[in-house]
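Hi R.,

As promised, here are both runs. First protein below:
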Amino acid sequence: MALVLGGLGCGLLSAPGSAAAEAVEVDLDYVCTNGVARTPVNLEVTLTLQTALAVGQPLDIRWGIKYKDQGRFLSPGLFQPGARVSATGAVGIGGPWSGELKSLGSQEQARLPDGDQLTLPELISGAVTTTAPGVIEIKPRRLLIDFTPPPSDATFNDDDPAVSYSAEWTDYNDRDVNFHDVGRDVHATEANYAEAYFKFTGTGVDFITEQDSRAGKVQFSIDGRPGIPATADASKHPDGSHAGVANQGNYTLWGMRGLPYGQHELKVAKLDDKWAMVDAFHVVTEELADPPKQFRATCEPVLKPSTIRVVVGSPTQSPGQSPSSGPSGEPSSSPSGGSSGPVTSPPPGGSTPTPTPSKSPGGSSSPTPSQSKLTSVVVIGSPTPTITTTITLPASTPTSPQVKVTPKGGAQTGEAPETPRSPAALLIGSGGAMVFGGVFSGVVLRRRRAAHANGRSRTV
């Protein structure tokens, strides 16, 4: 059984129905720019997938990625352990319909000094389950590398280099230990509209001062916009009652959360004739649901990738029967349960048409435009689901798709009829399962490496 990658950029694969499933490994070179790629970074990418499947088998696309030369992705700052590098590889899926399958993977990082090398995930994977015979065309697309900082918090004293002051402030050191000031020092002023500035990176910030009945009101703004709340008074409790205390340092007067991760500037301005103190600032980075966009590196293939064809065989000719197949081997038009059957979406009128195939002179069913139904196609990678397009499937699908066959080591000996365009390869999300051989009875994998345009090949 042979796999041929054609010179026109398409792979002609073995005919379905064989007990042995073909696998192909395609080598690609990618170049990455922006984000954590401070200079262009070259990657070696190996795509691995099966090229002949029985109906109901998962199509699992795996990406092996590694650095190609001395270029590296670099940490955008100093981070404690727990930062994460994630990779998302996309392939276009064509044939009777169009969509995209994303393969995902991530790698947790150790403690990272600023500019330190980032460790890549060794393998990223995504899978879908096939539910009808047909030919699926796979075309490698972009690869995204994201960096997510870990949750963290840090306290910055009033004399930290990240803090600056207008001329009206005075630095007081060696304060009484009973005041509990951070670092036993503060900056203080009695001048109206005196300002202090603090630059930080994170998603939240707190202003720390001394609570004192002699203190006054201060105003807060972040990146030129009013803080929430905009003002606070160190002479009062949070409920607005008067604070009958003096020199209670390390007191969090004000704080704000939910900022977009990145660099921000907090401005503190004194509003009245009472005095104000800056004891410290506290910065937090909350758990991030999505990687910050400013760290994203985008990778593109160096050369135009070849198209890889995956043949999905008929249940009557392949090992294993599709759970959604009827006794005749054709997919059932209305599955009774489970996630592996087609998902039928009603048309705008609210009802689902019932296909009624008509017989052709040769005795086979041939669909007409009025016999088509809408089917939602869901593609799921691990761990994030991705929903692709909605397509139209014919009501009747032949159960014996034919493709060209080239025996290994020999010349072309014959050619079966061309695959009709009416068969549709319906993909239903398999929950991100990474199934790759040894799961379905009677299926044996033979892994092969197909040469890409750069001429590298290897057979295992």
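And here is the second one, sequence first, then its structure tokens:
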Amino acid sequence: MVVTCGNVPLESSFRRVPRCVYTSTSLHEYRAWGSKPANPKHRHFTWGLRSLDRHVVDFYISDFQSGLRALVKTGNGARVAPFVDDSVVIDIKPENKDMSPEFVRWLGKKNLSSDDRMMRLKEGYIKEGSTVSVMGIVQRNDNVLMIIPPPEPIATGFQWSKCIFPTSLEGIILRCEDTSNNDVIPV
């Protein structure tokens, strides 16, 4: 299914990609011996999460072959389980920090220090025109086809061959692997 934006599209935080329906930007720091932790549970010699911005809004999905269009209700506090590949991954070391003024500006906007730490910025997004898979409850309301979050968590099964252990996922499940840079024509 192809994504089209609703009334309030998003813009990604770092690359400023317009007309997105989902954005996620995370900053991780590597903690060497004697360096400061990124968060209270951050152990030595691991990457720790320092900052995370994740936003999602209602959007439409369309099937061009059948002409079917549905509203996906992911905004207004709805639970979402996103499985979106990171489109941007940037590793910053103290010696190459000055080579990325865009990264230093982004840190300043977020009021984050840019001291001598190894950092990794990851940004993922679903933009208009991306191909997505959506799992949720299909509902019709006043001739509008909608996909809403299920009332209970969805349990996954155990798959030994793929090392997948049983877990429960809450809300609408979004999956997007599309990272193409094609120009999009809104539907």
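A quick note on the second one: The radius of gyration is 19 Å. Let me know what you think.

Best,
J.
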